[in-house]
């Protein structure tokens, strides 16, 4: 069974990161969610990231806000693909989170998504798309999801606006 890890810096990130969980559930991808803080629990971060592949994870989604070093530090410890989700912060609306995650040095990659709910949902979708390369059921779920989404937009595209 394929497994995605959703990790976040704090329980306060869950309202955002639950969007990734919801998308993975919809695509039929097994996942685990956990709180791992780069700054508050650095040893837990290292232990998780170093053992993630042997634990059976295929993809890691990491969300954090503010000085959002979690995705980059996880990527530093594993060869697994890491998708970074900038969580909206109270002080700088997530621009701090985005810039902390996106500006990785050459040689250690984090795939950075958009700030907030849409980015987290798309992290779930992208993780499912990676899993779908080797999983026919997930691939079909993604194709069906995309087709239904297109149908829904087309059905509302010709509304007579006042
Ligand atoms: C980061 O600090 C977390 O990812 C969270 O977005 C932010 C605030 O954390 P809390 O103070 O709400 O626990 O590490």
UniProtKB/TrEMBL annotation:
One Pfam family from the record: AIRC
Record-listed substrate binding positions: 10, 13, 40
Functional pathway: Purine metabolism; IMP biosynthesis via de novo pathway; 5-amino-1-(5-phospho-D-ribosyl)imidazole-4-carboxylate from 5-amino-1-(5-phospho-D-ribosyl)imidazole (N5-CAIR route): step 2/2
Reactions that this protein is recorded to catalyse: 5-carboxyamino-1-(5-phospho-D-ribosyl)imidazole + H(+) = 5-amino-1-(5-phospho-D-ribosyl)imidazole-4-carboxylate
GO MF annotations, alphabetized: 5-(carboxyamino)imidazole ribonucleotide mutase activity; phosphoribosylaminoimidazole carboxylase activity
The protein's Enzyme Commission number: 5.4.99.18
Keywords: Isomerase, Lyase, Purine biosynthesis
Superkingdom of the source species: Bacteria
Residue intervals of the PurE domain: 2-153
Protein family according to the UniProt entry: Belongs to the AIR carboxylase family. Class I subfamily.
HAMAP family with a match to the protein in the record: PurE_classI
Function text: Catalyzes the conversion of N5-carboxyaminoimidazole ribonucleotide (N5-CAIR) to 4-carboxy-5-aminoimidazole ribonucleotide (CAIR).
Protein name: N5-carboxyaminoimidazole ribonucleotide mutase
Higher taxonomy: Bacteria, Pseudomonadati, Pseudomonadota, Gammaproteobacteria, Alteromonadales
Gene: purE
């Amino acid at each position: 069974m394929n497994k995605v890890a959703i990790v976040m810096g704090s329980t306060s990130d869950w309202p955002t990161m639950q969007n990734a969980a919801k998308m993975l559930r919809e695509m039929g991808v097994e996942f685990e969610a956990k709180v791992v803080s780069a700054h508050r629990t650095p040893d837990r971060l290292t232990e998780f990231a170093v053992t993630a592949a042997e634990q059976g994870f295929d993809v890691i989604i990491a969300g954090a806000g503010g000085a959002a070093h979690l995705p980059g530090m996880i990527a530093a410890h594993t060869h697994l693909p890491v998708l970074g989700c900038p969580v909206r912060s109270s002080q700088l609306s997530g621009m701090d989170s985005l810039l902390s995650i996106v500006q990785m040095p050459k040689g250690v990659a984090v795939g950075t998504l958009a700030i907030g709910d849409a980015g987290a949902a798309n992290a779930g979708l992208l993780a499912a798309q990676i899993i779908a390369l080797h999983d026919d059921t997930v691939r079909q779920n993604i194709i069906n999801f995309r087709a239904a989404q297109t149908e829904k937009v087309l059905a509302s595209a010709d509304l007579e606006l006042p």
